[in-house]
Amino acid sequence: MDVKARVRSYLRQAVMEEVGDGDDLFELGLVNSLFALQLVQFVENEFSIKAEREDLDIVNFSSIDALTAFVLRKTQPPFGPGHAAD
């Protein structure tokens, strides 16, 4: 299952609602402060990444698309696939 599908599946179970990939979870009232922490824990555990202080921006967690982009940024090599650092 790809990143977006895993995020979508988690959110579907957590909020018990169908959410569009670009829907703002905060504007829809689906995320409170406790659930925001759960989202951070989900991405850290599910994708073996660490959300640093600078990552804890609402923009990174506002939608399925935003969460997917955040996870991909954290899991991709810094110079993209197939490129070596100098």
From TrEMBL:
Q: Which InterPro entries match?
A: ACP-like_sf (IPR036736), PP-bd_ACP (IPR009081)
Q: Where is the Carrier domain?
A: 1-75
Supply the source organism's classification. Bacteria, Bacillati, Actinomycetota, Actinomycetes, Streptosporangiales
Q: What is the name of this protein?
A: Phosphopantetheine-binding protein
